[in-house]
Amino acid sequence: ILNYDIMARFRRRTCIILLLFILFICSIMMALKTLRPDRVGFGDPFGLGLLLELQQRTVLLDDKQNSLNRVQGDTVTPVNHFHDISFNTMKASLPAVNKQEEELSSPNYNFHIFYYIWFGNPQFDGKYIHWNHPLLPHWDPKIANNYPKGRHNPPEDIGANFYPELGSYSSKDPSVIEAHMKQMRSASTGVLVLSWYPPGMADENGEPTDDLVPVILDYAHKYNLKVTFHIEPYKDRDDRSVYHNVKYIIDKYGGHSAFYRYKTSTGRFLPMFYIYDSYVTIPEIWANLLTVSGSQSIRNTPYDALFIALLVEERHKHDIHRSGFDGMYTYFATNGFSYGSSHHNWASLKAFCDSNNLMFIPSVGPGYIDTSIRPWNNHNTRNRVNGKYYETAFSAALLVRPEIISITSFNEWHEGTQIEKAVPKRTGQVVYLDYKPYKPNVYLQLTQKWSEKYRREQEQWLM
Q1: SS3 helix, strand, coil % of the chain, rounded to 5?
Q2: TM spans, by residue (predicted)?
C-alpha cells in the first residue's frame, strides 16, 4: 500500500510538471507570434532578418570604432563571429569598408624611418641573402661555447624573431617594394632613410644594392614619399671617401623628384645624410669635410648638405660639435642600451643641441630582440608590451619638441625593431613572435597615430 501511494504521488507530480512545461512552451510561442511580421509566410526563416540586422549593426559599429581608432589611436580590433556569416545583402557594403581601410594618410616629412634593402631570395637573387644570417658568436670564447653556431635556413628558418607577412622576400621584388611604400605611407611617415653602401660595396652578409636605388626612388615618388641616405660604415671610410659618396649621390640621384631636401631656417633646401657609426672616425678627420676651413670642405659647395652623426656616448656630443656635423640622432631602439638611446637623456641632449645650433633627432622604436642572430644578447631585449613600449618612446620624443623624429625601423628584422607587417608562424622547433592580439598592421597604425599627434603639437610649438 505504501509503495502504491508513493507511485501515485510521483505520477501526479510528473503530470503537473509536464502540464506546466506545455503551458510555458505555448506562452513562448504566442509571444513570438506577436513579434512575427505579418508578411512572413509559413516556413520563412523567422529570425534570419533579425540576425542580418544585428550583423549590419555590428559592421556599422565596427566602422564607427575604426574611425574612432584612427582619431584616438586605439588599435584594438574587436572580432565578431557574425562576420563569418555570409549574406548577399551584405556584400554591397563591403567595398566601402575596404576602401576606407585602404585610405592612406598624408606623409609627414618630419617622420624619418630607417629602411633596409639588403634582403634576397632565390627567385630574384639566385640565393637567400640576409634571411640566412649566421649566428654571431660572443666575443668571449667561454660564453660563445654555451650558444649554438651556424646559419639560418630559409624560408622556414630565418634570421629574425618575428616573421614577415611577405615571407622571406627579396628587396628587388617590385611587388615587395610597392607594398613597403604603401605601408610606410599608411603609417604617415614621409622620409625613408635608405641604408646605403657605395657601389660595389655591402655589409659582410649582403650584396651591393646601389643599383636598386633608382627603383626605390621611383616607387617612393609614386606614394609621395622622399628618400634620404644612411651612409653605412665601410672599410677606410674617411673625409675624402665620404666627399665622393655625397658627390656621387647628389649627381646621380639629386635630380629625382623623390630625393629629400630639408628646408633650413635660412630658407635653403639641403640634402640630408645620416652617418652611421660616425664616432669611429676622429673629429679632426670629419672637420676636414664638414667645417668651412677644412682641407676637404664640402661647405658652400654644390654638394653642401646636412650631416647627422650617431650619438652613442655622452662625450660624443662634444665630438659631433667639433666635427662640424649639423645634428645628431640616437638610432638604437633599446631604451637604456646607450646614453643616446636612453629616453631620460633626450631633454639634456636637445638643450645641448639648441645651444650649439645643432639638430637633435631622437630615434624611437617598437621594441628590440636580436637573439635569432645574437643568442647571448637576451639582456638587451625590450618587450613590445603590445605597443606600449613604442608609445612610451614617442611620448618621450615629443616632450623635447624635435624638428624631426626618426623611427628604428621599418624592416630591420634581425634586431626585431621592424614595424613592417608580421604574422604568427610556427615551424618545427621555431615559434616566431607576433603582434597578437592585434593585427599585422598595428605598428603602422600606432605610427600614424603619433604622426598626427606630432603635427598637432608642432602647430602649438610654432605659435
Answers
A1: 45, 15, 45
A2: none
Give pLDDT tens digits for 189-209: 999 999 999 999 999 999 999
Position 26 scores a pLDDT of 64
Provide the whole-model pTM: 0.78
Using a pLDDT cut of 70, give the percent of the chain over it: 82
Cis omega before residue 155 (within 30°)? yes
* Range 143-149, long-range pairs (CB < 8 A, 24+ positions): 143/376, 144/376, 146/376, 147/375, 147/376, 148/375
DSSP-assigned letters across all residues of 155-179: TTS-SSSB-BTT-S--TT-HHHHHH
pLDDT tens digit string along 24-52?
A: 776 655 544 433 333 333 333 323 332 33
CA nearest to 332, candidates 418, 232, 416, 408: 408
pLDDT tens digits for range 365-379? 999 999 999 999 999
Pairing verdict, β 426-427 and 430-431: antiparallel
Task: Give the C-alpha separation, 134 to 128, whole Å.
Answer: 12
**247 vs 84: CA distance, rounded Å:** 57
Residue-level pLDDT at 37? 35
Quick check: 121 and 169 in contact, CB under 8 A? Answer: yes
Q: Which residue has the cell 510538471?
A: 17
Strand extents, DSSP E, 266-313: 269-270, 272-275, 306-310
What SS3 state is found at 111? strand
